[in-house]
Write a structure and sequence with these properties.
The structure holds 2 protein chains of 2 kinds. By secondary structure, chain A is an all-alpha fold. Chain A has one domain (12-487). Chain A has 19 helices and 2 strands. Chain A has helices at residues 16-31, 41-61, 80-106, 114-130, 134-152, 159-190, 195-208, 214-233, 242-249, 252-277, 282-305, 310-330, 336-361, 377-380, 382-396, 402-416, 420-446, 459-477, 480-487; strands at residues 68-71, 76-79. Chain A has a two-stranded antiparallel ribbon with strand order 1-2. The radius of gyration of chain A is 22 Å and the shape is globular. Chain A starts with 15 loop residues before the first helix and ends in a 10-residue tail after the last helix. The mean pLDDT of chain A is 88. Chain B is mostly helical. Chain B has a domain at 283-509. Chain B is 76% helix and 3% strand. Chain B has a two-stranded antiparallel sheet with strand order 1-2. In chain B, a hairpin with a 4-residue loop joins strand 1 (60-68) and strand 2. In chain B, helix 4 (81-104) runs parallel beside helix 15, helix 11 packs across helix 14 (310-329) and helix 15 (334-365) packs antiparallel against helix 20. The mean pLDDT of chain B is 87. Classes of the chains: A mainly alpha, B mainly alpha. Chain A binds chain B through residues 393, 396-400, 404, 407-408, 411-412, 415-416, 420, 423-424, 427-428, 430-431, 434-435, 438-439, 442, 445-447, 478-480, 483-484, 487, and chain B through 67-71, 133, 136-137, 140-141, 143-144, 148, 151-152, 158-159, 162-163, 166-167, 170-171, 174-175, 177-178, 181-182, 184-185, 196.
Chain lengths: 497, 509
Amino acid sequence: MPPEIVIPAIDLRVIAPMLTIFAWATVLLMVDLFIPSKDRKLTGYLALAGLAVTALVTLAVQPAPGTSRTSFSDMVVLDSFGTTLTLILLLIAAFSIAISINYLSYHNIEMGEYYPLVLFATGGMILLGQSTNLILVFLGVELLSITLYVLTAFFYPRYTSEEAGLKYLLLGAFAAGFLIYGIALIYGGAGTLNLFEIGALLDTSLTVGAAFPPGALLVLIGGALVLIGFCFKISLVPFHMWTPDVYEGSPTPVAAFMSVGTKGAAFAALLRILIVALLPFKVYWLPVLGVLATLTMLFGNIAALMQPNVKRMLAYSSVGHAGYITIGIMTAGTHGTESFLFYLLAYALANMGAFAVLITLERRGEMAWSVDDFAGLWKRYPLLAIAMATFMLSLAGVPPTAGFFGKFFVFAAAWEDGQVFLVFMGVLSSAIAAFFYLRVIIRMFMDEPMREVIPIFNRGLTITIGIAVVGTIVFGLLPTPLVSLVQNAVIALGVGG
Amino acid sequence: MFPYLSLILWLPALGALALLAIPREQHQSARSIALAVSLLTFAVSLALPLRFNAADASMQFVEQIAWIPQWGIAYHVGLDGLSLWLVLLTTFLTPIALFATWDSIHSQVRYFQILMLLLETAMIGVFIALDTILFYLFWEFTLIPMAFMIGIWGSGNRIYAARKFFLYTFAGSVLMLMGIIGLSFLHRDATGAELTSFSLPQIMGDIRTGAFALDFGMEQLLFGLFFIAFAIKVPMWPFHTWLPDAHVQAPTAGSVILAGVLLKLGTYGLIRFNLSLFPNASAWAAPAIGILAVIGIIYGAWIAFAQTDMKKLVAYSSVSHMGFIVLGIFALNEIGITGAVLQMVNHGLSTGALFLIVGYIYERRHTREMSQFGGLWTVMPIYGGLALVMVLSSVGLPGLNGFIGEFTIMQGAFISPALGWGYVAVAVFGVVLAAVYLLRMYRETFMGEVDKPENAELKDLSGGEIGMMVALLIPIVMIGLFPTLFFAPMQASMSEVAQAFSSVVAKGQ
């Protein structure tokens, strides 16, 4: 008698957001063939519609706070942490597409594939936020990375863009190697790839005997390799070397998308791995991440100080911000998770806005994003200057902006967790960071114009900048609704928990 | 109860919003509206001393609304004897500073007025906030308008000055943010409360009743975090280097507000946070801080003496005078602290007036070098007379305000077991030096012959300028002649602050 094949119960609601976005992207890829090239912008609008539909689906399947659903043999989970993250990621993707639509045609790189690629990458990010199995984590990372290799090299005739794509590909492959090797070791040690099971296994094997079981040692080594793989993706120092070059070479909307979206999703997956699977190893990973976070904050901000090129400055500043977010995920006890989500949203608003301002100043066939181009902006385009100043202040963490509360929540979570030294390094590096954010403001408001720069506005950019400014200030004055939102975003620590 | 504090706090901000509706070119109406709003704010704030209950040491006019309930953060404002006169000083100096822009700010006038009004809201907010996060928000927000004022409307090396001002103060304040976070979490853990509380009266009350006792090492750490933030703002020697730059480059109205109110945020914070929350650490640090204060007094005076630029001279005299205030605060007794608070008001009035006086002559001659002047008294007699009174008020002539403050501070420091006569013996040279450098400035500019032909035709003060001076003279003379009127409402709150030390300091002996 042949063995009975049991097909595990499948709950499609768990992957409904991913299903929607992937289906939409696939269909859009084909629909695009029938859209005449002069109406290529329509593809962009359809992609935006897809994001909106995905958001609605996400809201519809959102579980009650504290509850979760798993499916596909517990490989995927739908918890309120995942859905909140998904909504933030969809917002980021929507911003990225909105600022791309005219950018692509202006720079003669308009191709219909661009938008489905962004949707695929977003789907990969959602998968990262929801997977509870290391193989799915790997799948998410690769899905995200492969689409981004294409997107970074999308600026076809520009050499720096090709260089960026190649650099990102090589380092991405390197990181993937670490990641998959680490996953293999973990499987060797634990006999499972499921995060819940790894966590439970470590919990029992470490508490029973005083001796360190060999299986746990393998998991520890594997965990370290996985961490290295993630460090490349979230560009923690010293794994950040690719970041400035890749951001500078990529089309600006892609750089914006990467700086917040990729990072946010990779952080979310890392958070889940650390909290669900490797929590018994906290004594090991906490000091390591603490050192990395400190190095990242200090180095990222100090390197940003020296950049006369605003796009590179924002790249280094995003390295610095990765350090603060790391503090948030390290201390993911009661307040760490919510501080991570709050920070991510505050940072996304400000950084997306700043990149959008950069796009308004970007000239065809030119690759200069010199801080000189911002000189005297206030006299000619006061609203644009005020918007940029708001983003800079939020990134620096000056109240009353959302960025201030982001930093406050991260530092508060760290103090609560007993990481007083990290709080100190955090505030110290914020003081350093103020230097270069302030420099942009000073050039805009207090200097005379260096050369004639006429910003280009279009609907997508204006709306993105508008939403980002309003969001940054409103959440800076009244963060209460956002705090409720992220407080309800609880990570599922067990199956059906 | 009628929300006086919220009204006073938000009126200027609403005025700033209203100014946005004024067309950019209509300079005159922007000036008038801003002045009217600030005068209205001052008028409303006059209700505060009238309705203030001097016998009550606790917070009055309290308003509390939940803001971020998940974290125990609230919109919580109130007034006590410490903040009462400082709020009035702010509402009083802002219209004067705004009026001073009439003749000195000619570009982007509307924006300057908007920033001034926003700054007023932020400064009042610092003095009345009773929630530490709310306090921090206002504290940080004072930076932005001031940095812009220096950077856009300043003179000479304005960008350097604006950057230095912003970065110095910001570096200090992020340390304070760490202190604020630490304080609330330690408080939560000590009291076993479920939520963190950022309410200052709550934390202060728990410290006084002993429900929240800090471990001494932690108390020292938190004391240090707050102290650095405030010491930079005061500014105390050796954190003072941003001050001369900021003052010299700032437009006159900016200097008046900077010296008049912004510096007081630092000394206010020292009393409100360091003294009230960390009595043991304060007693431990008082002798060292006293030494820094005395160094500041002598150093500021010495450097002021060497200046040839009048505005720089007044700026360094601020370093010296603020040293006195810190000395009074860290005397840790009622007399010293009360004197320090009164001296904060005095310094705001006198130094504000001196900056205006320098500003008047700068507008006429576009130089502030003392050597360019001489014999101004004969050309501008009204100006000469008013300037003399203001100089004497700053020097500390009995009968004017400065004397009362300095005398009380030195009395407090003298009898303080934490400091003692040695500090006073050195500090008293500061008073002598103040007389020397200020009177030298007066002699070189106003006395003697009119030896520069450019000065012979200078116009004396206009009606508006005289009005500003007279407005400043009223409180200067009032404080000088009827100090009790001003001391009385402070007494209850100050003795409560000092109470904490009667046991601590005695124990340390």
